[in-house]
Amino acid sequence: MRILLVNDDGINAPGLRTMYKHLEEAGHEIIVVAPETEKSASSHSISLRRDIRARKVADKEWAIAGTPVDCIVIALQKIVQEPIDLVISGINAGQNMGEDVLYSGTVAAAIEAAMLGQRAIALSVNAYEGQQFESAAAWAIKIIDKNIADILAPREVLNINFPNLPFEEVKGVRLTNTGHRRYYNFITITEEYDDGFDYRVQGSNPHWELEPGTDSEAVENGYISVTPLGFELTKPKSFPPILSWIESQGMLEF
């Protein structure tokens, strides 16, 4: 397959490099278009009203001075000249489960690709340090070579999280819902001044609600989590009480 590889940890990040190596060994053609520096937690941001430098750093490899979504846009509108079979975002250094998907540049890149008509998956490993990228990449190859791209629906992304375990200790694959988590000590004050302070957003390890059937519960128990993400943002179940309120307040028509 012809695969577009992107991430949010930067073009030289170990997760991307390990995934590249395994894809190459499996015989896939890879085009890398990734941020030149780390852009974690950039979500779906794009760079407006400034020039963005795209720099070719190797054969079929481009470093972009922008966000992961910038990378997808420029890759599909300028750099890539032939059809892409699959877009892979990752492997991210750290999980993208629960509400993390709202912050994640890794997931956002895959979503942007899907919005532009591509089949896309996001890959992450559940560890902030000591990530077993070799294991995650090997499992990703198995999943890809079993034709996971063929089951992707239009405007859909598969968000895949790997437990940080050796290859042989992974128990299997689970189809999951997006779970919930909470970060404590979300900010650190780094300097105090008379007129304010400096702070850093970093957070501690999240507290996961390990509900059955969720991504966090699956990964916690040693399984690969596969969660389909879509773009239907409207919540139809909330229509009745909101409509009732509009009608009761006489605001249906003025």
Task: Characterise the protein shown here.
- There is one protein chain.
- The chain is α/β, with parallel strands linked by helices and 254 residues long.
- It has one domain: Survival protein SurE-like phosphatase/nucleotidase (Stationary-phase Survival Protein Sure Homolog, Chain: A, 3-Layer(aba) Sandwich).
- Helix content is 27%, strand content 28%.
- It has seven helices and 13 strands.
- The chain has helices at 14-25, 68-79, 100-103, 105-115, 133-145, 215-220, 239-248; strands spanning 2-6, 29-35, 54-58, 61-64, 86-93, 120-125, 157-162, 172-175, 180-182, 187-193, 196-201, 207-209, 223-229.
- The strands form three sheets. It has a nine-stranded mixed sheet, with helices on both faces. A two-stranded antiparallel ribbon has the order 9-12.
- Strand 3 (54-58) and strand 4 form a beta hairpin.
- Helix 2 runs parallel beside helix 4.
- The longest helix has 13 residues, at 133-145.
- The chain is globular.
Give a short synopsis of this structure.
With 254 residues, this protein is α/β, with parallel strands linked by helices. It has helices at 14-25, 68-79, 100-103, 105-115, 133-145, 215-220, 239-248, and strands at residues 2-6, 29-35, 54-58, 61-64, 86-93, 120-125, 157-162, 172-175, 180-182, 187-193, 196-201, 207-209, 223-229. The protein has a single domain, classed as Stationary-phase Survival Protein Sure Homolog, Chain: A.
> Which fold name is given in CATH as the topology?
Stationary-phase Survival Protein Sure Homolog, Chain: A
Number of strands: 13
Largest sheet: 9 strands, mixed
Main CATH class: Alpha Beta
Shape: globular
Number of domains: 1
Secondary structure category: alpha/beta
Helix content: 25-40%
The pLDDT mean sits at 94
Question: Can you tell me the CATH architecture?
Answer: 3-Layer(aba) Sandwich
Helices and strands, in order, run as EHEEEHEHHEHEEEEEEHEH
Distance between the termini: 58 Å
Radius of gyration using CA atoms only: 20 Å
CATH homologous superfamily (4th level) name: Survival protein SurE-like phosphatase/nucleotidase
Strand arrangement in the largest pleated sheet: 3-4-2-1-5-6-7-13-8
Ranges where pLDDT stays below 50 over 5 or more residues in a row are none
The portion of residues forming beta strands comes to: 25-35%
Number of helices: 7
